[in-house]
Design goal:
This protein is mostly helical. The chain contains seven helices and no strands. The longest helix has 34 residues.
């Protein structure tokens, strides 16, 4: 497998400052959001988690300023079932991708609040790892190179169309995962 977040991207995050970091993580979270929302929709007792997830991703796009309550949001997210220790591990397809999506929101919330480039790099790693795994499970898929391309665009300074491209990519990922769920 290729390198995950390339050194140049990690360096750009470290040098880009708060707004560049916040935009990068917002786009990553947007692309992963359909995996959490779509895979957890209709799960009894998860309505508040779904609302929180959707609202958090929306709030991340306000990249001109840090989230006011990022630490509180991280703590709430860390209580999600997907991020709890599990002796048996996560083996079901839906649970695996919902885990990646929850983790891919956890790092952006931290990065958004603190401006931490390390949290942003971790977010990028999570998205790339999930897409590499999806490529291995879907014949002919190319989600990993697409994620690398979109991460690069989010660091380029010319981000016109990034939100739309992220929404489209997220929907394609969700459809691919749905195709691998047991019926």
């Amino acid at each position: 497998m290729q390198k995950l977040v390339e050194g140049a991207a990690a360096e750009a995050l470290r040098e880009g400052g708060g707004e560049a970091i916040r935009l990068y993580v917002a786009a990553c979270a947007e692309r992963m959001a359909p995996l959490f929302v779509g895979l957890r929709a209709g799960t009894p007792g998860r309505e508040a988690d779904l609302d929180f997830y959707v609202e958090s991703v929306r709030d991340l796009w306000q990249a001109d300023r840090p989230l006011a309550d990022a630490i509180k949001g991280v703590r709430r997210l860390e209580r999600f079932w997907e991020l709890q220790p599990n002796e048996e591990g996560i083996t079901a397809v839906a649970d695996t991708y919902a885990f990646f999506a929850a983790l891919c929101l956890r790092y952006p919330m931290g990065a958004h609040g603190s401006g931490s480039a390390d949290d942003a790099v971790s977010c990028g790693h999570v998205a790339l790892t999930a897409m590499g795994m999806l490529d291995q499970n879907v014949t002919g898929a190319s989600f990993l190179p697409e994620e690398q391309r979109l991460q690069s665009i989010s660091l380029s300074g010319d981000v016109s169309g990034l939100w739309g491209a992220s929404v489209t990519a997220g929907r394609a990922r969700f459809r691919a995962v749905l195709g691998h769920l047991p019926r």
